[in-house]
Specification:
- The complex is a heterodimer of chains A (451) and B (159).
- Chain A is of the alpha+beta class and 451 residues long.
- Chain A has 17 helices and 22 strands.
- Chain A has 3 domains: 100 residues, Rossmann fold, CATH 3.40.50.20; 70 residues, Dna Ligase, domain 1 (2-Layer Sandwich), CATH 3.30.1490; 244 residues, ATP-grasp fold, B domain (D-amino Acid Aminotransferase, Chain A, domain 1).
- In chain A, the strands form 6 sheets. Chain A has an 8-stranded antiparallel sheet, with helices on both faces. Chain A has a 5-stranded parallel sheet with strand order 3-2-1-4-5.
- In chain A, helix 4 packs antiparallel against helix 5.
- The chains are: A alpha+beta (451), B alpha+beta (159).
- Chains A and B meet through strand 3 and helix 3 of A and strand 9 of B.
Chain lengths: 451, 159
């Protein structure tokens, strides 16, 4: 087991990783920007090193400073969390060449699955169905027009190097193709420094269902079930649940998707935790979308259902240990729901609401878990992602989990800033959510109805 | 309205000054406006404030006990105006000279300008020469040779 691990992230996930380190008897080193000096992850780590001013590109995205910090602190491994450098193959490579273990898959696998377009080709190779689409990247409008006509509208133009919902443009007819094509490329270039795009069929009103996979270096590969992440606003997930109500009604589909996930993970030589994202259409067809070669924000709902700690497993796998017995032999029970609490004003077009939290009271009691780095008196900085907490609720059945989530959201007191709590409360109360009758377009439709 | 306010030093976390919260005083003023009060007096551990509409109120009495700390900010104010800090622009290991046998780049009393190399910070096996980027005379060296530095850490005081 490692003696010391550096946490190359911030906020709730940095604290999450530090907690896992502590339980494993591993020393943790936090890195932080000047804006995060009062963050709880900095206070609770065994050691902390300032790596730059507030902007992420001057701090959390500065691979050289993170590696320098790793060297002066003499760590053996780096956990990249999610976002930032977690799927940056170059960073993983630098770690490898500096003899620091990158907690995740190899740089080679990250490259292979990180390029969304190449990942589709890999999925096809291993007989995982993909949405009909261009065979590679599409360089010109002329080519785009031809391919879109072949696939049939509507289509989605997507950044090859993309993620987080950015660099994508839907296109419903040929008249809008040229504009959508150019806009997608521009956004891709701005967000990822790479304007390469590919085109795939836009599946209308699908469910976004992802499978958690874990693989160690001893040949063990398991899948830990699915998470339904269809409730999204502008391609950002806001509520996730496990298991998916859609797959609860179609167990054969679940089995097929689970098997495809394990097969793909094994064939590409994947190691550590990963998530394979699929779209499932109204006819029960599933399509590979992409693979995230890192831990995901919503990993806790899988943990609660399977009784495991995925971050600890990540560290253990990286240290060369075998997957825990309780992970290899787990059977899920319970139903879990996660709400991402963001510092945004849902009554004002979700405008970010940074600032001082005067009073914080988080829900508790049976089946409640709150993953957060925030506390009373904390000042939410304006420079980063607006997520300030994850509320994870578990219950023996989906109905219990839903009523418990409602109870928890109504106990959650956050004074001083605006949060998305009232919005998530409204969704949980809706009859569509209760009947499990929602898809990727549902939240936008819900918001339009409220206007 | 006259209220004395002491400089709040950022690392005084253990014993934050309980009395002088400007936002609380602003709240008092707001309350006065809302209820059309002409006078308001508040006494709390550590401070006393008296607000009077339309005239000059009695100045608040600074508490007798921390008399010595009241002097420190004044002393600091004088030095703050004239000294500056050269801080680390990167993370790494600080070296005062280009090699163990060489003389230090600078010592206390040396004059430097923007382009003077003041130290080396080693990061990822690369020796980076750090320039002063300020001019003045080195007053103090804040860090030991071969110790780790983080971003923004103070290296030298110059005046």
């Amino acid at each position: 087991m490692f003696k010391k691990v550096l946490v190359a992230n911030r906020g709730e996930i940095a604290l999450r990783i530090i907690r896992a380190c502590r339980e494993l008897g591993v020393q943790s080193v936090a890195v932080y920007s000047e804006a995060d000096v009062d963050s709880m992850h900095v206070q609770l780590a065994d050691d902390a090193i300032c790596i730059g001013p507030a902007p992420s590109r001057e701090s959390y995205l500065k691979a050289d400073r993170i590696i320098s910090a790793a060297e002066i602190a003499n760590v053996e491994a780096i956990h990249p969390g999610y976002g930032f450098l977690s799927e940056n193959a170059q960073f993983a490579e630098i770690c490898e060449s500096c003899k620091i273990k990158f907690i995740g898959p190899s740089a080679e696998v990250i490259t292979r699955m990180g390029d969304k377009n190449e990942a589709r080709a890999t999925a096809t190779k291993y007989k995982v169905p993909i949405t009909p689409g261009s065979e590679g990247t599409v360089a010109t409008v002329k080519e785009a027009r031809k391919i879109a006509a072949e696939i049939g509208y509507p289509v989605m133009i997507k950044a090859s190097a993309g993620g987080g919902g950015k660099g994508m443009r839907p296109c419903f007819n040929e008249a809008n193709l040229e504009t959508s094509f150019h806009n997608a490329r521009t956004e891709a270039d701005r967000n990822f420094g790479n304007d390469a795009v590919y085109i795939e069929k836009l599946i209308l009103n699908p469910h976004h269902i992802e499978f958690q996979v874990v693989a160690d270096s001893h040949g063990n590969v398991v899948q830990l079930g699915e998470r339904d992440c269809s409730l999204q606003r502008r391609n950002q997930k806001i509520i996730e649940e496990a298991p998916s109500p859609l797959l609860n009604a179609n167990k054969r589909l679940r089995k097929r998707m689970a098997e495809a996930s394990v097969k793909l993970t094994k064939e590409i030589g994947y190691e550590n935790c990963g998530t394979i994202e699929y779209l499932v259409d109204e006819s029960g067809n599933f399509y590979f979308m992409e693979m995230n070669t890192r831990i995901q924000v919503e990993h806790p709902i899988t943990e609660e259902n399977h009784g495991c700690d995925l971050i600890k497993e990540q560290i253990r796998i990286a240290a060369g240990e075998k997957l825990s017995e309780h992970v290899l032999n787990s059977t899920p029970r319970h139903h879990s729901i996660e709400c991402r609490i963001n510092a945004e004003d849902p009554y004002n077009n979700f405008t970010p609401s940074p600032g001082k939290i005067d009073f914080w009271f988080q829900p508790g009691g049976r089946g409640i878990r709150v993953d957060t780095h925030v506390y009373s008196g904390y000042e939410v900085p304006p420079h980063y992602d607006s997520m300030i907490a994850k509320l994870i609720v578990s219950g023996a059945t989906r109905e219990i989990a839903i009523s418990r989530t409602q109870r928890a959201l109504n106990e959650f007191l956050i004074k001083g800033i605006k949060t998305t709590i009232p919005f998530q409360d409204a969704i949980i109360k809706s009859s569509d959510f209760r009947s499990g009758d929602y898809n990727i377009g549902w939240v936008e439709a819900f918001l339009n109805d409220l206007k | 309205m006259a209220v004395t306010r002491r400089n709040h030093k950022p690392d005084e976390d253990e014993n934050p000054d309980p009395g002088l919260d400007i936002s609380k005083i602003k709240d008092c003023i707001k309350l006065m406006d809302e209820h059309e009060l002409t006078g308001f007096e508040l006494e709390q551990q550590g401070f006393k404030v008296k607000l009077k509409r339309g005239g000059v109120a009695a100045p608040a009495l600074p508490p007798a006990a921390p008399a010595d700390t009241a002097q420190e900010p004044a002393a600091e104010a004088i030095t703050a105006e004239t000294t500056e800090e050269i801080t680390a622009p990167m993370v790494g290991t600080f070296y005062k000279a280009s090699s163990p046998d060489s003389d230090a780049f600078v010592k206390v009393g040396d004059a430097v300008d923007e382009d003077t190399t003041v130290c080396i910070i080693e990061a990822m096996k690369v020796m980076n020469e750090i320039k002063a980027e300020k001019s003045g005379v080195i007053q103090r060296i804040l860090i030991d040779d071969a110790s780790s530095v983080q971003f923004g850490q103070g290296l030298f005081i110059i005046a």
